[in-house]
Design a protein that fits this description.
single chain; two-stranded parallel sheet; 6 helices; 7% strand
């Protein structure tokens, strides 16, 4: 699953989290590995999910309220999406599976910028490459380090 937008706001993140749930209806709890972009752990994003049980402290900007839902308690406070966020180590992009996925996309589709003059076509190529794995892929899981090779 992915989203493409010129600006990622809290509303889009919450909508994305809501869209993840139907893809895993037979799963009691979903773990989402992500980087340490502060908006991922904004209190108004956190209030949309079940209480987080991570042993890792989140470094919130000092200007943010520490109260989950301080901005939008009635809008997302009743969602309780069964998602636990798993932060990746700071400055360890090589350990983040999505970074490895972006590298694969770069190597296979974006290298040398053959479509630099046709943004619409470039976006189509990227969407096709990302959508290709909608139903899972053992090869992709192996590539990003989330599955051992069985051979």
């Amino acid at each position: 699953m992915y989203r493409r937008a010129s600006k990622i706001a809290i509303e889009m993140l919450v909508a994305f989290l809501q869209d993840i749930r139907p893809a895993y209806l037979d799963t009691e709890r979903i773990y989402v590995i992500q980087d340490n972009w502060p908006v991922h752990i904004h209190p108004d994003v956190l209030v949309a999910m079940e209480p987080q049980e991570t042993p890792f402290a989140h470094a919130l900007p000092t200007s943010w309220s520490l109260d989950a839902g301080a901005q939008e308690p009635s809008k997302w406070g009743d969602l309780h999406i069964p998602i636990q966020l798993v932060p990746s180590p700071t400055y360890a992009s090589w350990s983040n599976p999505i970074e490895k996925r972006w590298r694969k996309l770069q190597q296979e589709h974006l290298h040398v910028h053959r479509l630099a003059g046709d943004l619409t076509k470039l976006r189509e190529v990227v969407a096709t490459a990302l959508t290709k794995f909608t139903h899972g892929s053992d090869d992709l899981l192996h590539y990003v380090g989330l599955k051992r090779c069985t051979e």
